[in-house]
């Protein structure tokens, strides 16, 4: 993967992007116990597979979601958060 | 030596015995099974057999011996870490390294070079001073040196870095060394094999059997085996194995790339590391410059290498050594580093009885090979975490007791 398609700015070189890690739902910090919170803060799904990740196009500071196969480094699709259906 | 060489030339058959046997099938059960025939796994097998008398052991390897991160690192050995637990642990490792050639009766080309970690900014100079003091306090030979001393030791280096990022000082660690990485794996492999351990290459683990919280066996591509003690030492494949037993971990896999230049006459005695420039370099016994940089910036479970890496690292190398501009790069490669958020390993017992972990070795695992083998062998044999690894347990994250080893890979972060 040398190119990434930003949903706003189009296809750009990968050096313009940073990866923000896997998209994970945050538990309510006021409700959960310490152990669940530690699980959210530290633990990751480290195995290979197709993952939805946060990516940022740094020149324009556009954060979006990319679905990527972390085994073969192939981006399947990208979309703005919450606009999955339109992609 | 020439006579021994002549023997190779005249003999019809290969005159030396093989380094280790190749057993043709797995036994139905073993006292202990080790997954991963890299340096760490083989060292654990070696010390289990030598120090604890547990010889009914199988080491399973899906590829070939020493073909993972053991054969892919840049072979730097040092103990100038930042946290007391880290310094003690790695210092014990350096001590073991120094005896390994004798121990194996095999030359591992252990070569003490002296290790400079360059500081280009005030803040990194401050961290160097901190590390030097922690090291001295724990009896490790480290000191802060100024640019003149660096120049005297390595006159080929451009101390001003072309004016971009002048070198302000360095952490000098005299015991810093390099070794031949394959020889380490072979030495441990041969030593374990001679004591009765079986090494099964081309044998992939497909599943781990756990009954009421206790490991009972392993399903492999060559059949099923029973065991109650299972040590997982598989670096980049650790999350996959943890998934088999249902354990959660903070590991994220990033590729770490490296490259070597064409061979040259020896000119670089020291090991030079620059965190700011993302460079580490040493000259091997063959005369090649062995160079590495920082981790690839995003998760990937692959050992592909990239042109971006070569270009970036070469540019920074030229900041330090402008006269290398005509030197060619002959090989590049990558390994899968299992990174933890606090740059310390995850070792020891887990929530599953009989499932022992030696992981989270990210970009700093080679130097720890002997001490990991020794402490993990003691942990597996006694079913109790060795005292040197107590702070490295997997459950430290659930209890918010992180280690914070900022001295880890120098350039990994």
What does this structure look like?
The complex is a heterodimer of chains A (87) and B (413). With 87 residues, chain A is mainly beta. Chain A has one domain (3-25, 48-86): Folate-binding superfamily (Folate-binding fold, 2-Layer Sandwich). Chain A is built from 1 helix and 6 strands. Chain A has one helix at 34-42, and strands spanning 3-6, 10-13, 17-22, 50-57, 62-69, 74-79. In chain A, the strands form 2 sheets. Chain A has a 4-stranded antiparallel beta sheet with strand order 3-4-5-6, with no helix packed on it. A two-stranded antiparallel ribbon of chain A has the order 1-2. In chain A, a hairpin with a 4-residue loop joins strand 4 (50-57) and strand 5 (62-69). Chain A is globular. The model of chain A has no long low-confidence stretch (mean pLDDT 93). Chain B is of the alpha+beta class and 413 residues long. In chain B, 28% of the residues lie in helices and 23% in strands. Chain B has helices spanning 2-10, 39-52, 84-104, 122-137, 147-153, 181-194, 238-245, 307-320, 369-382, and strands at residues 32-35, 57-60, 76-77, 111-112, 115-119, 143-145, 169-173, 177-178, 198-200, 205-211, 214-220, 223-226, 230-232, 252-261, 271-274, 279-283, 289-295, 329-339, 346-349, 355-359. In chain B, the strands form 4 sheets. Chain B has an 8-stranded mixed beta sheet, sandwiched between helices. Chain B has a 6-stranded mixed beta sheet with strand order 9-2-1-13-20-19. Chain B has a 3-stranded antiparallel beta sheet with strand order 3-8-4, with no helix packed on it. In chain B, helix 2 packs parallel to helix 6 (181-194) and helix 3 crosses helix 9. The radius of gyration of chain B is 21 Å and the shape is globular. Chain B starts with a helix and ends in a 31-residue tail after the last helix. The model of chain B has no long low-confidence stretch (mean pLDDT 93). The interface between A and B is medium-sized, with 21 and 25 residues.
